[in-house]
Design a protein that fits this description.
Elements: H1 5-26, H2 31-55, H3 57-63, H4 75-90, H5 105-119, H6 123-131, H7 138-169, H8 183-205, H9 213-237, H10 258-275, H11 285-292, H12 296-305, H13 311-328, H14 336-342, H15 348-359, H16 363-372
């Protein structure tokens, strides 16, 4: 048995996948996300195995013909399971439900098809099918691959919308988005997209670039190899990346009355003016609600509906007003950098963006105008 470079990379990847799947199932925290990720990696393992079974066909056929076409239908589970993983990371209230099984309909259909044409047959028939080049036409495999690649593309669009919503909704609960780690969700999604693009290139090259097809196949599997290894590294060093946000529609079942809302708003405004909690650069909606003894959901509701701002912008507005007071003090020699940290911002870019949003000018120009007057 002679192994090529692609085979070696794939065997290393399968070994790593088995180890990491084991570790994910042992993780007690964030159990749902870890198990979904483990299943996603198991699907990838079967897909790689399926390729290797045919790459080493002459060797495996002697052992047993039952080793073939095991992972062929599982490729239709990759995108749906990855989608469920993305949702489990982004939304704290996400739970697997019976309706999620609908995502498995294409996989189940393909499994039944391959079972009828291959798995239900005897060893002798299976061996004959494999040695004679398969049991379905070339046109079928072209259509099948198109369906697979199209399905993954559709799920990618949905995943990107989840990421977009995550970026938007995180501002409802945090006063500073710089420390909210979006890099994991962003990277794992974009890395999967890049790996998928490499698969598309291989698929399209089968009829036009036979002379470099082996190199393209290697690059395809190597892209996934790098993708898996980054997951392993981040998963082991930072197992809990997200705190998550709630996916449920806002305030649909809220029991907050108008009088209570006005009372809470008065308390909130007085507390903001007196205690200045916005000076804390990491203040969150939950922390502020705890300090005020107001339920976080009600606090979010009055800020959104009565102040017409999300939590991030609400806190930023107070910080900008504080910065304006400091900048307006001619006896104050603090730099813009010192001021932005003092009022609760943790980066110059976010401070400048917010300052220009609420004043129409930059902090430096605002300071010069104050001195000039």
């Amino acid at each position: 048995m002679i192994l090529g470079l692609t085979d070696i990379i794939n065997f290393i990847a399968m070994f790593q996948l088995l180890i990491f799947i084991f570790f994910l199932f042992r993780k007690k925290s964030n159990r749902q996300s870890n198990r979904i990720l483990a299943f996603f990696l198991f699907v990838q393992l079967l897909i790689i195995y399926d390729y290797e079974s045919f790459s080493l066909k002459n060797y495996l056929i002697r052992l047993s013909p039952h080793f073939f076409f095991i992972g062929t239908s599982f490729i239709l589970l990759a995108a749906p399971v990855f989608y469920l993983y993305v949702k489990s990371l982004a939304f704290t209230d996400f739970r697997l439900q019976k309706k999620n099984t609908l995502h498995a309909v294409p996989f189940i259909s393909a499994t039944l098809l391959f079972s009828f044409y291959f798995h239900f047959h005897s060893s002798a028939v299976k061996q004959s099918i494999i040695l004679n080049g398969g049991f379905l036409s070339r046109e079928f495999w072209i259509v099948y691959n198109c369906i697979v690649l199209s399905q993954i593309l559709i799920y990618f669009v949905v995943d990107l919308n989840i990421l977009k919503d995550y970026r938007k909704e995180i501002r409802q609960q945090y006063s500073s988005v710089n420390n909210i780690n979006l890099s994991w969700l962003s990277f794992i999604l974009y890395a999967f997209i890049i790996s998928w693009i490499s698969s598309v290139i291989v698929f399209l090259s089968q009829n036009y670039f036979w002379n470099i097809l082996d190199q393209l196949v290697f690059l395809n599997f190597f892209a996934f190899f790098l993708f898996f290894n980054y997951i392993f590294f981040k998963g082991l060093t930072h197992p809990e990346i997200f705190s998550g946000i709630e996916e449920k529609p806002k305030y649909v079942s809220s029991k907050l009355t108008q009088s209570d809302a006005e009372h809470y708003l008065t308390r909130l405004s007085a507390y903001m003016d007196k205690e200045k909690p916005y000076l804390n650069p990491t203040i969150t909606l939950k922390e502020l609600s705890s300090e005020l003894a107001i339920p976080a959901r009600y606090l979010s509701q009055i800020i959104n509906e009565h102040v017409q701002l999300n939590f991030y912008d609400y806190i930023s507005k107070y910080r900008i007003e504080e910065a304006k007071e400091i900048l307006s003090d001619n006896s104050n020699n603090k730099t813009v950098l010192e001021i932005l940290y003092e009022v609760g911002f943790n980066s110059k870019s976010s401070f400048n963006t917010a300052f220009k949003k609420y004043t129409g000018t930059t902090p430096s120009r605002f300071k010069k105008e104050v001195i000039r007057n």
